[in-house]
Structures are given as structure tokens and as C-alpha cells.
Amino acid sequence: MSRCPATQLSLEYLRLQNKVPWIVERLIPSKPFPKRVDLFNLFDLLYLDPDLQQIGFVQTTSWTNRHSRKKKMEAGGEPFRVLWSMPSARTELHAWRKVDGRWEVFVWESRFSYTPFSQGDGGMVILQSVQVPTMAEARAMARARERGIISDTCPDAREGRTIRRIS
Q1: What single-letter DSSP state applies at residue 64?
Q2: Phi-psi region of 40 (alpha: psi -120 to 50; beta: other; left: phi over 0)
Q3: First to last CA, the chain
Q4: CA distance linking residue 92 with residue 108, whole number of Å
Q5: How far is CA 156 from the centre of its chain?
Q6: What is the pLDDT of residue 157?
Q7: Cβ–Cβ contacts within 10 Å for residue 68, how many?
Q8: Residue 135, exposed/middle/buried by CB under 10 A (0-12, 13-18, 19+)?
Q9: Which CATH code for domain 6-134?
Q10: pLDDT of residue 30
Q11: In this structure, how many other beta carbons lie within 10 angstroms of the beta carbon of residue 21?
């Protein structure tokens, strides 16, 4: 089985959705082995969404590592909770796998869960699966955007709402 190029796939996927991504994972040279360091020890990518005027933080992984990354993000502590509470910030987990020879993405976004018996203020931030366009749909939308044939409203699959295009 081939290795999953999750970061590169997420970069392409975000660009196809008219977002501006940036790699925030860094390679720190050290002996005998170099070390990879994520932003807040959680995120590999950061993106700007000019359509929704939001900033997003993405952890990318392969399908087989999704559970460990989900636990890592949910246990991420203060940075994860602070980012969730900011209205213009999104935190996402992208898990990639090959289906019929094509890469497919599954996305989880952070949500607040109120649990009356938990310690502290009674709630915690969890990751919840969301429906997003497939890679093929994202490519088709990008081609339509380049040709200028996007209709006046474009469905936003993440939130089930439409965005009006201002001419």
C-alpha cells in the first residue's frame, strides 16, 4: 500500500475550495533524527477563507491514523478550546483514504458538547464528522469558478447554507 500524502492532498483540496492554505508544520533538524513540530502541537495547516472571512486550522492524517489524531485534538487542551470559542476560527481534521483508486477526504470539525457530569464548566470540545464536497466535486467547482459560470448562489456543504456571489 502506498503512503498517504495527506498534507499535500489537503493543500490541493483547500485551494480547490478557494481557500488560501499555509503549511505550519516545521521540520527541526536534530541529531540523530529530525523532528516534526506542529502548530500548538496539533495542526499541520492553516488556511484563510476569503468567502466566509474565517481562518481555519487543519490536522491532516491517513485513514488508519484518524482515531489517534481525533483523540490528540480532543485532548489538545487550552489551544483547541480557545480556537473553538473564536467565532471566525475553524478547527478541522482531514483523514484521507483511497477508494477505487481515488483519494477521498473525510472531515471532522470541532463542536462544543455539554456534559452535566463533567468536571469544570460542564462541557468539552469534541470533533464531529461533517459532510464536505468530494475531491472531484471540488475540482468541478474550481473549474466553474475559473470559467466564471458559477451561479448566483453556491451551496456551502459544511453548513447547509448558500453564499451569495457579489458581482
Answers
A1: G
A2: left
A3: 47
A4: 6
A5: 15
A6: 40
A7: 10
A8: middle
A9: 3.40.1350
A10: 83
A11: 20
Amino acid, single-letter form, for residue 134: T
What pLDDT does 64 receive? 92
Radius of gyration of the chain (CA): 17
Hey, where are the domains in the chain? 6-134
Dist. CA 42–CA 56, nearest whole Å: 13
Confidence (pLDDT) at 2:
55
How many CB atoms within 10 Å of residue 99?
A: 9
Strand partners, 26: 37
The HSE-up count of residue 111 (CA atoms within 13 Å, CB side) is 12
| Cα 63 from Cα 128, distance rounded (Å) | 16
Tens-of-pLDDT digits for all 167 residues of the chain? 456 789 999 999 999 999 999 999 888 888 888 888 888 888 999 999 998 889 999 999 999 998 988 888 888 777 777 877 788 888 899 999 998 888 999 998 887 666 655 555 556 677 788 888 888 888 888 888 888 766 544 444 444 444 444 43
- Give the count of beta carbons closer than 10 Å to the beta carbon of residue 151: 9
Cα separation, 48 vs 17, in Å, equals 11
